[in-house]
Design a protein that fits this description.
Layout: E1 5-9, H1 13-25, E2 29-33, H2 36-45, E3 50-54, H3 62-71, E4 78-82, H4 87-96, E5 100-103, H5 108-123, E6 130-133, E7 136-139, E8 144-147, E9 150-151, H6 156-168, E10 173-174, H7 175-183, H8 190-204, E11 213-216, E12 220-223
Parallel strand pairs: 1-2, 1-3, 3-4, 4-5
Antiparallel strand pairs: 6-7, 7-8, 8-9, 10-12, 11-12
Helix pairs in contact: 2-3, 3-4, 4-8, 6-8
């Protein structure tokens, strides 16, 4: 993880210290914030490969930090840490713009695997270019997506999901294929993928007259052009 720049927003000094020692031993450059307001400020001002964001923070909680960062156009991947393991809290985290999460206490090797996967996906180990499907346009070089000329506000994970879908369109992309591409050896629960698909559909279909994202029951998803 040489030259990787991480922002850790964590108010527990013991946890922050463990994370710092671990990632710095792998060559990462680590910056810190002990409250949500400072984390939000640093995230907007700095250039980070990934943000590790605690859910429960003083001054501004993690959900608000993530939501405000996405609102301001920050597309840095966010991995949320939480002492909670409630499904509704998990879904709220993804709705706010987080890309992945780990419940405390967590295994450092698993955390490292998830961090590495998020960073690799965000940097995009793909050729530069533009993918098109109907009125949908995905600019790989800029990590931007447009539908009918309107720019969509996608989280990094939703962007990667759409990248797979548009690359295979109009063919079906199986759930297992998406999970393997996004999370590799650390697959999450089905609820996590379902939450990301919900967020993607809200951006991709909800503002427009006709849907383009189709769920194929028990198989996967595909992009499909429909006639009005």
């Amino acid at each position: 993880m040489a030259l990787t720049q991480l922002l850790i927003v964590e108010d527990n000094p013991d946890v922050a210290g463990i994370l710092a020692d671990f990632f710095e031993s792998k060559g990462a450059v680590v910056d810190f914030a002990t409250n949500g307001e400072l984390g939000y400020k640093l995230a907007l001002e700095g250039s980070f490969d990934l943000i590790i964001l605690d859910l429960m923070l003083p001054k501004m909680d993690g959900l608000t930090v993530a939501k405000q960062l996405r609102h301001m156009g920050c597309n840095t991947p966010v991995l949320m840490l939480t002492a909670l393991d409630d499904k509704q809290d998990l879904l709220k985290g993804f709705a706010s713009g987080a890309d992945d999460y780990l419940a405390k206490p967590f295994d450092l090797d698993e955390l490292n695997a998830r961090v590495t996967a998020l960073i690799n996906r965000h940097h995009g180990k793909v050729a530069r270019g533009v993918l098109k499907f109907g009125s949908l346009e995905l600019d790989i070089a800029k990590h931007e997506v447009y539908r009918s000329g309107k720019k969509l506000a996608l989280t990094p994970t939703c962007y990667q999901i759409l990248h797979h879908l548009i690359h295979k369109a109009p063919n079906i992309v199986k759930r297992e294929e998406l999970i393997e591409a996004l999370w590799s050896d650390t697959p999450p629960s089905n609820d996590i993928l379902r939450s990301h698909m919900y967020q993607l559909r809200n951006q991709l279909d909800k503002p427009f007259d006709s849907p383009i994202l189709t769920t194929v029951p028990k198989i996967g998803f595909k992009l499909e052009l429909t006639s009005n």
